[in-house]
Amino acid sequence: MSATEPVPVAAAAGIAEARIGVITFPGTLDDRDAARAVRLAGAEAVSIWHADESLQDVDAVVLPGGFSYGDYLRAGAISRFAPAMAAVVDAAKGGMPVLGICNGFQVLTEAHLLPGSMVKNDHLHFVCREQSLVVENAHTAWTNEFRRGQRITIPLKNQDGQFVADERTLDELEGEGRVVFRYDGWNPNGSRRDIAGITNERGNVVGLMPHPEHAVEPGFGPASAEGPRAGVDGLTFFTSVLSSLVHA
Amino acid sequence: MGRVVVEVMPKPEILDPQGKAVVGALPRLGFTQFSGVRQGKRFELEVDGEVTPEILAAAREAAATLLSNPVIEDVVSVADAAAVPGEATGTPVNA
Fold first, then answer.
1. CA gap B27, B23 in Å, rounded
2. Would you place residue B89 in the very low, low, confident or very high pLDDT band (cuts 50, 70, 90)?
3. How does it assemble (chain B) (predicted)?
4. Under CATH, what is the fold of the domain A9-246?
């Protein structure tokens, strides 16, 4: 094992000017981790409060996980009407990369930026585990540095993680290659067709239930072939978006 | 003071994990008559004046946009509490 400090990947590649916003809603939990992941990838993390109407000219936005508004009404249902979300919807329609993680994914479905919805896990238990996923689409703004068929491991932790949509929507997602991640080996929550993450038609908006921002630094991630807590598969989400910004 | 009652249920085709948990618990108390439970939500929207057709229309819109998510839920009723027998005072039936 190397004892050297982690070198921000994109900074090493000379693309360090990108600014990525991280939105905090009341009840968001993982905004600090998401901002740290952004910095480790080599970009500047910009904090955005849910009541802000401006996204401060960021190049991409992350909606982190947590329990915004205590999951009252439905997970993500109240956050979806936050002033910052109006700006996110506009920016997403203009092609800005948007990543929704866990509760952020729920907010994106409530905001109709992604189809379907999440309901309570089929077994009713909160799940917290290191989850293996298969990458199904390596062409989105957030997954272009993965390979199709690649298996990655990142943490999964939620109560309302069961992805549901009607059969027509599911067929459309499959037919258009918009399933981005599928649960590998075991479906942890009853999600339709083992779907863990999806994207929009354009590939700039991605939502998933598992947490890439918790697998970005050796010593603090899931177990990997390199050793316990060595997994950094989540970092590729953040380096992918930087490379998509450079090539945009 | 008026009140509009909105009721929202999970769509029939969506598995309702909470209802499933409840139906599993009923027999433990001896309630063996019930073969299924679905759990929904009831909202009471209060207005200062009486419930006019415009208020009801606004309540229907709120029900469709915020109180329910059409992907997983149906709005099964939006009604003026004063027009529903036993609803006017909101008195619990076990009182």
1. 8
2. low
3. Part of the FGAM synthase complex composed of 1 PurL, 1 PurQ and 2 PurS subunits.
4. Rossmann fold (3.40.50)
